Amino acid sequence: MNYPETKLPKVGTTIFTQMSQLAAQHNALDLSQGFPDFDGPTALLDAVGHHISSGANQYAPMAGVPALREAIAEKVSRFYGGHYCAEREITITSGATEALFAAISAVVRTGDEVIMFDPAYDSYEPAVEINGGTTVRLQLSAPHFKVDWQAVRDAITAKTRLIILNSPHNPTGTTLTQHDLDTLADMLADTDILVLSDEVYEHIVFDGEQHQSVAGHEALRERSFVVSSFGKTYHITGWKVGYCLAPAALSAELRKVHQYLTFAISTPMQLAIADYMADAPNYGFELPAFYQQKRDLFCRLMASSRFELLPTQGTYFQLVDYRAIKDVPDIEFCQWLIEHAGVVAIPISVFYQTPPDTRIVRFCFAKGEATLKAAAERLVNL
Q1: What values do phi and psi take at 354, rounded to 5?
Q2: Segment 165-176 mean pLDDT
Q3: Are 227 and 99 in contact (CB under 8 A)?
């Protein structure tokens, strides 16, 4: 039998799966994948059990439980001054990844071009390609990984359908400024180009800075999908509950895709999150200090190592340059690191279409203090 040719020839087993397998084989400390090794707030976890025992165990509405959509609308208004209709402009999804796929599928057609920035989260390009689009990948340069807006302007053509933003940025930890958003808005003012803004780390921004959300930018809001996730905010990545904000016309198209991907998201989990958002409305304001303490601890512990630590403005990732330790490609270095130090990192070359000749890997510091101390001790000894 002849099977159909693959629609995603560049997609194989992810580096995250490979590194996790190696970590298990070597009993290594895993600072690779982007999820915490601690639970979310007890009150939030308890609320799920309450709603399960109270009978909230059937399908939720396709767009999401009304109470949760209303809580999101209130939060976005309070944090960013962006006003969204809970009924028509907010959709609950199976994590941010589904929201990203549904948004891309809703608007990208055969022959369309989508501008994105390398290094880039690995779900963007496959979603574009499976919908017949082509990615135009612009490189962000180390160590600061800032957007070159003239390069963006030069990359725009009559085929450009969408620009994908990610701030705070995975894997680099950089953030977009108000000036960045204003520049983009001016650039797109007389076009029909859309924006997809991945903001899952919106509440993890350091050093007193504020997250600049597309949801709070009036000129960009009318042409944008804004995606976020409760997994990163509440340390519940396994729940897979995310959401997408978009104008009514764009939300209607996104929901056409969403209803045939997952239709509805877990009812008791949505209700539990809505309860917690009402009971702890300031949680997002408190999260930066929580993660900055972990960033600063990890950086202090690593200060005497031979790694060069790059600036990290947000997310729970720390990039390091390892060339003073070993001058080999990053995938090879990560394999060596597991075998010789018992610590797992992620090579950032896997986030690029054409990787630059750098020696940089990513560590995740969303871990307990004991794990960070044990990992740093091993890394300092290299």
Answers
A1: -125, 95
A2: 98
A3: yes
Residue owning tokens 């330790």 = 325
Q: 100: number of CA atoms within 13 Å, CB side?
A: 21
Residue-averaged pLDDT of the chain: 96
Show the domains of the chain with their CATH numbers: 15-40+284-380 (3.90.1150.10), 55-279 (3.40.640.10)
C-alpha–C-alpha distance, residues 378 and 381, integer Å: 5
Q: What are phi and psi of 170, to 5 degrees?
A: -105, 120
Asked if 63 and 268 touch (Cβ cutoff 8 Å), the reply is: no
User: Is-above-0.85 flag for pTM?
Assistant: yes
- Collapse the DSSP code of 103 into the 3-class scheme (helix H, G, I; strand E, B; otherwise coil) and give the result: helix
- Among 298, 300, 286, residue whose Cα is nearest residue 364: 298
Using CA atoms, how far apart are residues 267 and 152, in angstroms rounded to an integer?
41
- Continuous segment of H or E residues that includes residue 227: strand 224-229
CA distance 213 to 220: 10
Of all residues in the chain, the percent with pLDDT exceeding 90 is: 91
Ramachandran quadrant class, 27 (left: phi over 0; alpha: psi -120 to 50; beta: rest): left
Give the integer Cα–Cα distance in Å for 242 and 265: 9
Report the alpha-carbon distance of residue 327 to residue 339 in Å, rounded.
17
Q: In what order do the strands lie in the sheet with 224-229?
A: 90-93, 242-245, 224-229, 194-198, 160-166, 113-118, 134-139
What pLDDT score does 42 carry? 97
Q: How many CB atoms lie within 10 A of CB 24?
A: 11
C-alpha atoms less than 13 angstroms from C-alpha of 341 in its C-beta half-sphere: 22
**Which H or E run includes 76?**
helix 66-80
